[in-house]
């Protein structure tokens, strides 16, 4: 497997580091590390914008409900939400299971890292504004409504692990044809592909920047596929995205999670 370049944040160090990556290992200061053995700081720093209803299967599951009030039709523009700063964590860090909650929902998402200010970008030039890609777990407490912003379910502390690095744009040949696999306790629970996106990466960037500026460092999530796996206390979840990397975290009750703060 060929070496690629990536940016990551080593715990206890300052700033992002340029490393050489091969599979799930990387070289830093001439020493090789296995990512599954480490806790890494998140490499992202900007605002994280999530996207719902951007996978064909996700929209199909709604059936006729999408044509009922309040909207009565499929979305004409991207449906966005924000994962605020309190949700962000890194590879190997714990995902907190809130008191009184029995299970969480994993949210495997391709994170599109913006490389420069993007305003009203044309679809054919959109990738020129991408610095790279990262793996994001858009964790949430399971919910049913797609019309009411699920802030209490999606914006909890630690509900957005991201990493382990930012893979360079040049090393991801086609962001619209990447396989995504989710393992829970090393068992494959979900397999999908960005080929199923309703709005491919370039169109998503173009449509979002038509009404909203994306700044350098911001992360736009391509979306979460239908039927995301459920997670319980003690489960280890690993999300692997082809050509990007693998992000691994363990679910723990809040009292254990607070110890790592």
TrEMBL record:
Domain (Fumarylacetoacetase-like C-terminal) ranges: 47-251
Keyword field: Hydrolase, Metal-binding
InterPro entries linked: Fumarylacetoacetase-like_C, Fumarylacetoacetase_C_sf, HPA_isomer/decarb_N
Molecular function as annotated in GO: hydrolase activity
Pfam families: FAA_hydrolase (PF01557)
Superkingdom field: Bacteria
NCBIfam families noted in UniProt: HpaG-N-term
Protein name, entry field: Fumarylacetoacetate hydrolase family protein
């Amino acid at each position: 497997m060929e070496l690629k370049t990536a940016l990551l944040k080593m715990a206890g160090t300052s700033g992002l580091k340029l490393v050489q990556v091969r599979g799930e290992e990387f070289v830093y200061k001439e020493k090789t590390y296995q990512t599954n053995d480490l806790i890494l700081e998140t490499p992202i720093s900007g605002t994280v914008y999530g996207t719902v209803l951007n996978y064909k299967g996700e929209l199909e599951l709604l059936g006729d409900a999408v044509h009922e009030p309040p909207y009565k039709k499929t979305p004409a523009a991207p449906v966005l939400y924000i994962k605020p700063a309190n949700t962000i964590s890194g590879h190997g860090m714990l995902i907190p299971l809130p008191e009184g909650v029995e299970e969480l929902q994993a949210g495997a998402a391709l994170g599109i890292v913006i490389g420069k200010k993007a305003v009203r970008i044309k679809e054919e030039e959109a990738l020129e504004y991408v610095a790279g890609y990262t793996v994001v777990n858009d964790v949430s407490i399971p919910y049913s409504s797609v019309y009411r912003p699920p802030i209490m379910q999606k914006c909890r502390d630690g509900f957005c692990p991201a990493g382990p690095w930012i893979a360079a744009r040049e090393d991801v040949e086609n962001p619209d044809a990447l396989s995504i696999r989710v393992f829970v306790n090393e068992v494959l629970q979900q397999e999908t592909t960005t080929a199923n996106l309703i709005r491919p990466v370039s169109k998503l960037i173009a449509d979002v920047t038509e009404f909203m500026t994306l700044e350098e460092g911001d992360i736009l999530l391509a979306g979460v596929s239908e039927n995301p796996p459920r997670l319980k206390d003690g489960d280890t979840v690993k999300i692997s995205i082809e050509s990007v990397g693998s992000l691994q975290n363990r679910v723990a009750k809040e009292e254990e999670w607070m110890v790592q703060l």
